[in-house]
Amino acid sequence: MLSMTNEEVKKAAAFFTREIEKLASGRSLRLMEVCGTHTVSIFKSGIRQLLPENVELVSGPGCPVCVTPNEYLDTAIAYSRKSDVMITTFGDMLKVPGSSSTLAKEKAQGSDIRIVYSSLEALEFAAKNPDKKVIFLAVGFETTAPTAAAAILMADETHLTNFYVLSAHKLVPPALRALLASGKSHVDGFLLPGHVSAIIGLQPYDFLSKEYHIPGVVAGFEPLDILQAVYMLLLQIHDQTARLENQYSRIVPKEGNPSACRILSQVYQQSDAVWRGLGKIPNSGMSIREKYQAFDALLNIPIIVEETKEASQCQCGKVLRGLLQPSNCLLFGKACRPEHPIGSCMVSVEGTCAAWYKYGAGRWQV
Amino acid sequence: MSNECVQLAHGSGGKLSHDLIKDVMWPAFANEILGEMNDGAQLHISGCRLAFSTDSYVVKPLFFPGGDIGKLAVCGTVNDVAMNGALPLYLSAGFVLEEGFPIADLQRIVASMQQAAKEAGVHIVTGDTKVVEKGAVDGIYINTAGIGKIMDGIHISGKNALPGQNIILSGYLGEHSLAVMGERHGLQFPQSVRSDCAPLNGLVEAMLTAVPKVAVLRDPTRGGLATTLNEIALQSGVGIMLEETHIPISSAVQAACDILGFDPLYLANEGKMVVFVEPESTNQVLDIMQQHVYGSEARVIGTVVKEPRGQVGLRTRIGGVRLLDMLVGDQLPRIC
Ligand code: SF4
Question: What is the reported pTM?
Answer without folding.
Answer: 0.82
